[in-house]
Amino acid sequence: MDSGPRTPLFRPRAYFESNGFPLRPALAAFAAAAVAFFVAVVATTALLVGRVEDAPAFAALLPPLIGTVLLAVVGWVIAVLLVAVLADAFLGDRSRVGPALTVATWATALGALTSILGFALTASTLGATSGTSADALRTTLSGVSLGSIAIGFVVAGWQTYVYAQGFAVLYDTDTLATGALGFLVAYGGLLLGLI
Questions:
Q1: Separation CA 67–CA 81 (nearest Å)
Q2: Cα–Cα distance between 170 and 133 in angstroms, integer?
Q3: What is the distance of C-alpha 190 from the center of its chain?
Q4: Phi, psi dihedrals of residue 190, rounded to the nearest 5°
Q5: pTM of the predicted protein model
Q6: CA dist 138 → 32, 122, 126, 159 (Å)
Q7: Is the pLDDT of residue 87 over 80?
Q8: How far apart are CA 114 and CA 147, in angstroms?
């Protein structure tokens, strides 16, 4: 019986050392993150529509929501491919793009937590009262909250950890170089998301 971890989310070095770099579980985690993101977007929108007195009907908002989620998933796929290519260019011998793709997919799937928890935070800040106007809602949601920034920093740190440990196993190197790359990717993505 395999005693290694089932995912690399908490012990990435042990996971990748014992399991190698299978892409299928990483893709499953990525798909689960995309589904969770979609559910969070739809649930938050349904909650907002129920609380805002001059909101459009939920059915009218569904097509743009689906488009938003698809755009986010396409962005995640581009990020995964970019990270895998960057890791191979800076750390490897350009023959390990497949395994680098696995590490990047796991770490990128974690990024969905920032959005999911951000939606939960948004929903909780609106309170339980209904009858809020759309203008009041726009004012409430227009800024970036300290809570969402804190969530983003924690998740980016977690992503950095997965990148650093996974790439260190893959390229048989220390975590200083892999951690630097992971830091740049994770926190760079966070900063781009805040813009």
A1: 21
A2: 53
A3: 10
A4: -60, -45
A5: 0.87
A6: 30, 12, 11, 31
A7: yes
A8: 11
